């Protein structure tokens, strides 16, 4: 096989669902989108317990071989890196196994059901010295990268307050299937683990570490029709099925305090998530307000950034900036403003950052330490929803928090 001078990287995949297919397409896109990276991913080995999915990986996606057991992927000497796209309850087991096998891994979020699971994976990865990447892809949006720069450069002044929501209607339909996501033993928390984790990662990446949380939560749909494991996705709708109880929250709201920094007292903010909301489809949004300006973005209008950096005057208000080659990695995908990027492209950026780190180049990927930081915020919110009290959040060393904080030299959990 000719690699055209590029370095071949053997890819292993664990779980061939929607996200596994998306990881695969991201790897396949790298030579065309990032030729300067100098890699040519080779699809070596995929594993899935469902025979039809294992066959699909081989016959359609193009993996050289497939298995029913993920351990076969980790034991394969031709597999250099592994994508872990299995359900949440398997992330701890598989993540630790991948680290023990010495395989750098790209794992979907959340890394386990709670902060304890995530910490165990982080410890295994640090012990083994393997590179990690975690699927918080929204931070890769060019508009988000620009807001992070505005905060770090002081263009918005001292950050005073933020608002971030993830309103996603994937479970708005009452006949929507009772997948593993609604089971506390399998998924851990509900909307908090699934959606608040994205919000926590996003605001900490842009603004800085959250130090305290208080929250509340509620279940909107108490029962749902049962979906057999592995037979569909959480978007499936079932007519007349046997009903089962929803065990974790559909909605959560939190008040947060950010850590103080060199510019003064830390910001305060509100975080809000729902998986049963009617109207928004994938409404992950962030609004950042400072003493000199503000910026806001919503994923449903991913290629638009609104910025205000002046007070008063005839043109006071927001300027809408379209996605363009000056923002983030936009130039790798589109030649000019208004030629929009999409969700899948953010996964290509993620794959690039992962493999660049594996090759010993820049370490700017969302790592297991970032995932642990988000998990600690979520765990604090879950605990607060039960007690009604404020809960402290311990920062994680080595995380590239936003704001004007340099990366910590030490790495630990």
TrEMBL record:
User: Which InterPro entries does UniProt cross-reference here?
Assistant: Gfo/Idh/MocA-like_OxRdtase_N, Gfo/Idh/MocA_oxidrdct_glycsds, GFO_IDH_MocA-like_dom, NAD(P)-bd_dom_sf
Alphabetical keyword list: Oxidoreductase
Pfam families given for it? GFO_IDH_MocA, GFO_IDH_MocA_C3
Residue span, GFO/IDH/MocA-like oxidoreductase domain: 145-295
Does the record's keyword annotation contain Cytoplasm?
Answer: no
The keyword Repeat appears for this protein: no
Report domain Gfo/Idh/MocA-like oxidoreductase N-terminal positions.
10-136
The record, for Gene3D superfamilies, names: Dihydrodipicolinate Reductase, domain 2 (3.30.360.10), NAD(P)-binding Rossmann-like Domain (3.40.50.720)
Q: Which residues cross the membrane?
A: none
Q: What is this protein called?
A: Gfo/Idh/MocA family oxidoreductase
Q: What is the lineage of its organism?
A: Bacteria, Bacillati, Actinomycetota, Actinomycetes, Pseudonocardiales
């Amino acid at each position: 096989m000719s690699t055209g001078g590029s370095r071949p990287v053997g890819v292993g995949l664990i779980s061939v669902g929607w996200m596994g297919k998306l990881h695969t397409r991201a790897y396949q896109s790298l030579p065309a989108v990032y030729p300067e990276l100098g890699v040519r991913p080779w699809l070596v080995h995929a594993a899935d317990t469902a025979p039809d999915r294992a066959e699909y990986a081989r016959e359609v996606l193009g993996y050289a071989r497939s298995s029913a057991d993920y351990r076969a992927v980790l034991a394969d000497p031709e597999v250099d890196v592994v994508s872990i796209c299995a359900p949440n309850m398997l992330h701890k087991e598989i993540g630790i196994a991948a680290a023990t096998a010495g395989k750098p891994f790209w794992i979907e979020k959340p890394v386990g059901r709670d902060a304890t699971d995530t910490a165990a994976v982080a410890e295994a990865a640090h012990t083994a010295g393997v590179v990690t990447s975690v699927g918080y892809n929204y931070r890769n949006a060019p508009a988000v990268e620009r807001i992070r720069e505005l905060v770090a450069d002081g263009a918005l002044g001292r950050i005073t307050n933020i608002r971030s929501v993830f309103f996603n209607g994937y479970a708005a339909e009452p006949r929507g299937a009772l997948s593993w996501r609604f089971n506390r033993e399998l998924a851990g928390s509900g909307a908090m683990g699934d959606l608040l984790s994205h919000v926590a990662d996003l605001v900490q990446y842009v603004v800085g570490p959250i130090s305290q949380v208080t929250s509340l939560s509620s279940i909107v749909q108490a029962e749902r029709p049962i979906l057999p494991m592995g037979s569909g996705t959480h978007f499936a709708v079932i007519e007349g099925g046997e009903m089962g109880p929803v065990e974790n929250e559909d909605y959560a709201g939190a008040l947060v305090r950010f850590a103080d920094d060199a510019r003064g007292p830390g910001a305060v903010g509100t975080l809000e998530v729902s998986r049963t909301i009617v109207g928004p489809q994938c409404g992950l949004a962030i609004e950042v307000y400072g003493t000199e300006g503000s910026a806001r973005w919503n994923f449903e209008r991913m290629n638009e950034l609104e910025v205000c950096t002046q007070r008063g005057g005839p043109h006071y208000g927001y300027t809408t900036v379209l996605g363009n080659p000056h923002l983030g990695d936009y130039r790798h995908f589109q030649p000019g403003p208004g030629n929009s990027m999409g969700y899948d492209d953010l996964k290509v950026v993620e794959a690039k950052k992962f493999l660049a780190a594996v090759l010993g180049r820049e370490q700017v990927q969302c790592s297991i330490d970032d995932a642990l930081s988000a998990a600690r915020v979520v765990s604090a919110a879950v605990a607060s929803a039960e007690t009604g009290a404020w809960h402290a959040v311990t920062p994680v060393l080595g995380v590239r928090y936003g704001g004007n904080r340099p990366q910590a030299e030490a790495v630990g959990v």
